[in-house]
Prior knowledge:
InterPro entries: IS402-like_dom, Transposase_6_like. The protein is an all-alpha fold.
Amino acid sequence: MVHKSDSDELSALRAENARIIKPLLLPEPATPRAGRPWAEHRKIINGMFWVLCSGAPWRDLPERYGSWKTVYNRFNRWSKSGVINIIFNRLLSLLDANGFIDWSATALDGSNIRALKCAAGAQKNIPISTEIMGRVALAAVLAPKSIWQQTEVASR
């Protein structure tokens, strides 16, 4: 469950920023051909920012941003067409120009990047005996599933 926090205000797109990215977006149709009226771009973008800043699943999006499905579909469509990257770059350059970005404090986290085993120097295609695999599997099954036991011993 996601609670309302200060990130709601931080993730909101201000009017002056909305004017900068408005030319990048298709005009909202005055009357839809079928279905519901087209949702306002700014409201949808605020919903995208809320999900991206909070890390919450799309389905947890608060109703004030519209339907989660609408926000997700537009994010998906704009991502595939490259519009999201252009919006991000425009807003990033605006923040940088106004001195809101401290580039000395940025960091790149590579922990999510998967490397091949051979990149770490591992040998390739070495047959492992079933006896060794059996011992490894047994050790994995018998290993404690949490550090509670070790914590209890250490706290005595």
